[in-house]
Write a structure and sequence with these properties.
Elements (H helix, E strand, L loop, with lengths): L1 E2 L2 E2 L5 E4 L5 H11 L6 H9 L3 E8 L2 E11 L2 E9 L8 H15 L4 E7 L3 H9 L3 E11 L5 E10 L2
Parallel strand pairs: 6-7
Antiparallel strand pairs: 1-2, 3-4, 4-5, 5-6, 7-9, 8-9
Helix pairs in contact: 1-2
């Protein structure tokens, strides 16, 4: 709908993923990471009680997701990804902050994640969201050509 010649921008929605989303989430993950998770892996995570899997929907299209595993009052963000056609539009920031809010609502007080040391866009996202580097894992990731890359362990307190 337009009003005085301006386009109305659709608002993305963060909501719980369902088993019906597994194929789409796997496609986004596979296009975003060297070793993509399969549809079956997403189906298992969606069914697990201690795993929070959320999709980011824009109109009728799923354009991203966030996955965290919860243990007591801590959580680990396992993955966040946005469809390549929608990157650079602040969707990942909105998704991350909303996801953190849901984790806090479940009683999570500390959130951890690993990020590839040279992945500057992801590191900026996490640092702007209040995550700090607490450790480093040597040769944690492996690229398609076999090159090993370091991971940074990051943490953010929610309480």
């Amino acid at each position: 709908m337009t009003w005085f010649g301006s386009k109305e921008r659709a608002t993305p929605v963060v909501e719980s993923a369902t088993a019906h989303d597994a194929a789409r989430l796997a496609a986004i993950h596979g296009a975003s990471f060297h070793r993509g998770w399969g549809e079956g892996e997403f189906e298992v995570m969606i069914a697990e009680r201690n795993t929070l899997v959320q999709r980011l929907r824009l109109r009728s299209s799923v354009i991203g997701f966030a996955v965290s595993r919860i243990a007591a009052d801590e959580a680990e963000i396992l993955s966040i990804a946005i469809d390549a056609d929608h990157r650079g539009q602040r969707f990942s920031r909105d998704l991350l902050f909303t996801h953190l809010g849901y984790l806090a609502g479940r009683g999570v007080r500390k959130v951890f994640l690993e990020v590839e040391e040279n992945n500057q866009p992801a590191r900026r996202l996490y640092e702007r969201a209040g995550f700090v580097v607490t450790g480093r894992r040597e040769r944690y990731y492996r690229e398609a050509g076999g090159k090993e890359l370091n991971a940074l362990v990051m943490r953010r307190d929610l309480s």
